[in-house]
């Protein structure tokens, strides 16, 4: 990756944006589709935001 501070690949256990998106994007899309169907979009976005923050702090 151009401009990366790592020589070969990021250190093991480091949570980068591509890894975070691979973990959360599929679940988020399914959850948001369900939230739109149930008219609970604001609540679903609040839950997703909380889960992402918790994931980021526990994996650090």
Topology:
Elements: H1 17-38, H2 41-58
Structure explained in plain terms:
67% of the residues lie in helices and 0% in strands. The mean pLDDT is 83. It has a domain at 14-44. The chain has 60 residues and is mainly alpha-helical.
Provide the structure class: mainly alpha
What does the main sheet amount to? none
Q: Please bin the fraction of helical residues.
A: 55-70%
Strand content: under 5%
Distance N terminus to C terminus? 22 Å
- Cα-atom radius of gyration: 15 Å
Global outline: elongated
Number of helices: 2
Mean pLDDT: 83
SS elements, strand count:
0
Topology as a string of helices (H) and strands (E) = HH
Q: Which residues form runs of ≥5 with pLDDT under 50?
A: none
Keyphrases for this structure?
mainly alpha; 60 residues; elongated
Produce a short descriptive summary.
The chain has two helices and no strands.
């Amino acid at each position: 990756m151009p401009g990366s501070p790592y020589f070969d690949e990021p250190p093991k256990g480091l949570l980068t944006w591509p890894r975070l998106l691979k973990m959360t994007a599929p679940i988020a899309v399914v959850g948001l589709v369900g939230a739109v169907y149930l008219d609970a979009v604001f609540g679903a976005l609040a839950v997703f935001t909380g889960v992402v923050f918790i994931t980021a702090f526990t994996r650090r």
